[in-house]
Amino acid sequence: MTHPWFAGAAPPRVLAHRGLVTAEDARAGIVENSFAAIVAAHAAGAAYVESDCHRTADGVIVLFHDEDLSRVTGDPRKVAQVGSRELEQLMAERGGLVTLAQALDAFPTLRFNLDVKAADAAVDVGTIVARHADRVLLTSFSDARRLAALRAAASTGRGTRPATSGGRRTIARVLTALTARSDRLLTRALADVDALQVPERQGALRIVTPRFLSAAHRHGVEVHVWTVNDPGDMVRLVESGVDGIVTDRADVALATLS
């Protein structure tokens, strides 16, 4: 059965990467993964928001991409070294800090694609999203973190598990199976995932190929490509069979692909 996360909109899906920050918003000091960025994505018509999860010094799960604050706030400390109240102050003029719990409660119609960025955040992320599992997809570069979050969500006994996208190890297993032309290995690699979220290329290696797309679709798995900001590339990828576009310009993608 298709997970409810995928019932939000028919492909091609537009996933607002870290929310939406327009050029005008950026000039006003708004940053990615802020409350204002999610509001903007929602206002633009995005059904899906991609974001990232870290754990603060006082154990609060916040939407933040980097391990440290330097790029976003100019503070060199790690997220894990800063309390949530102080981080809220640092983000106050940058669009506002948003915790994972706040995001899920404040935007009940949005579907979230959540990347577990830190090992110490995995269990808490899973626990928080459990009651929203029908509209959450969990992912991580680390399959270990992804699976830890899924186990935590399942341990609540609420029934529906979050959807999930494979990490680096899963992607490597899929590519190995395709190289070996082994459907048995491919079936095993895709056994626990609903989507594969990948860049079109990784260096010289082209990941998104007709064979890759065909194999995923044959096993009921969607393919979402990140991070695509050029309208021409969006159209080309969707025409090739890609199911979702992860983009910094959700407004442009929605207008281009509608």
Word description of this protein:
- There is one protein chain.
- By secondary structure, this protein is of the alpha/beta class.
- It has helices at 23-27, 35-44, 70-73, 84-91, 100-106, 122-129, 143-154, 168-180, 183-189, 210-218, 231-240, 250-257, and strands at residues 13-17, 48-55, 61-63, 111-116, 136-139, 163-164, 195-199, 201-202, 205-206, 222-226, 244-247.
- The radius of gyration is 18 Å and the shape is globular.
- The two termini are 26 Å apart.
pLDDT < 50 stretches: none
Radius of gyration: 18 Å
Q: How much of the residues is beta strand, in percent? A: 15-25%
End-to-end span in angstroms?
26 Å
> Which secondary-structure class do the elements indicate?
alpha/beta
What are the secondary-structure elements, in order, as H or E?
EHHEEHHHEHEHEHHEEEHEHEH
Mean pLDDT comes to 97
Q: Give the number of DSSP strands.
A: 11
- Report the helical percentage: 25-40%
Mind describing the biggest β-sheet?
9 strands, mixed
Q: What is the helix tally?
A: 12
The dominant shape is globular
Entry keywords:
258 residues, alpha/beta, nine-stranded mixed sheet, two-stranded antiparallel sheet, 12 helices
Topology:
Blueprint lengths: L12 E5 L5 H5 L7 H10 L3 E8 L5 E3 L6 H4 L10 H8 L8 H7 L4 E6 L5 H8 L6 E4 L3 H12 L8 E2 L3 H13 L2 H7 L5 E5 L1 E2 L2 E2 L3 H9 L3 E5 L4 H10 L3 E4 L2 H8 L1
Parallel strand pairs: 1-2, 1-11, 2-4, 4-5, 5-6, 7-10, 10-11
Antiparallel strand pairs: 2-3, 8-9
Brief summary:
The protein is of the alpha/beta class and 258 residues long. It is 39% helix and 18% strand. The protein has helices at 23-27, 35-44, 70-73, 84-91, 100-106, 122-129, 143-154, 168-180, 183-189, 210-218, 231-240, 250-257; strands at residues 13-17, 48-55, 61-63, 111-116, 136-139, 163-164, 195-199, 201-202, 205-206, 222-226, 244-247.
